[in-house]
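Objective 1b. Sequence-to-structure analysis of ABC transporter ATP-binding protein.
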Amino acid sequence: MTAAVPGAPVLDAHEIHVRFPLARDWRGRAVRHAHALNGVSLQVRRGEAFGIVGESGCGKSTLAAVLMGLLKPSEGELRRLPRADGRPADVQIVFQDPQSSLDPRLPAWKVIIEPLVAAGRGSVDRAALRARAEVLARQVGLRPEQLGRYVHEFSGGQRQRIAIARALATEPDVIVLDEPTSALDISVQAQILNLLRELRRAHGLTYVLISHNVSVVRHLCDRVAVMYLGQVVEQGPAAQVLESPRHPYTRELLDAVPRLDRPWPEDELAPPAELPGNAVLPQGCFFRGRCPWATTGCDRPQVLLARPDAPLHAYRCHVAGTR
């Protein structure tokens, strides 16, 4: 696999909206919607790990489906920038649950090479396909002699290694990691994260990591976008966003993460309340109803503002820059 050149854009999402119909009139036309994504814009560069973090229901998995091409936006545009051969960038995915995302009827080696066969790029020679599966298995820490087993014969961590090998099969430009460790034990999570880091270093992989776990994002990602109610509310280098957050929601999200080095701080923001419904979107700032900083001007739509001392760090709040 050829190492990617860091910095060149590979995915470019512009003002992505996704609406799901909740009710229809007698003609079958949607009259009420769930607003899953509300103007998401981001760019993923070759060779980087881009994190997308937020609480459950904020639109992370919907965005993953859009980036994969599994879901068409209601509005907006997603561009997969072309490869050297002119084909659009290839995007593969590692799902959250390795048990349900792998075909239980196939031995592991067939599961691994399944994307090659589906894309019409697999050899008709069974021995060649098996050899390719063995190469991929070694890359993720599995032994070739294990590949004749079925999915239920592997542990959870081993199943996720199979899922990662399957994602690598087509030599993709981008791998979307949708909560890749949340279904695993803590010790196994660390093994999978370290494996992902090693694979990225060895092969120049580009990751989009979808997670609610801030620690996982901090461990793996170069840049991060924080989502709230289908919007990106803060975006920038992971070190800046996670160590010096500006948006009040990002601060609350980070303060809600349990820490052993301090008791709960009474003078800091409280952990966030339940995410509001998305059938009727709030007017102005989406976070206004839960924000301790809400003031005059929050009833107007907020745009991403660059942090003056760090231009790559942006946040959707007109008050944050004064605090």
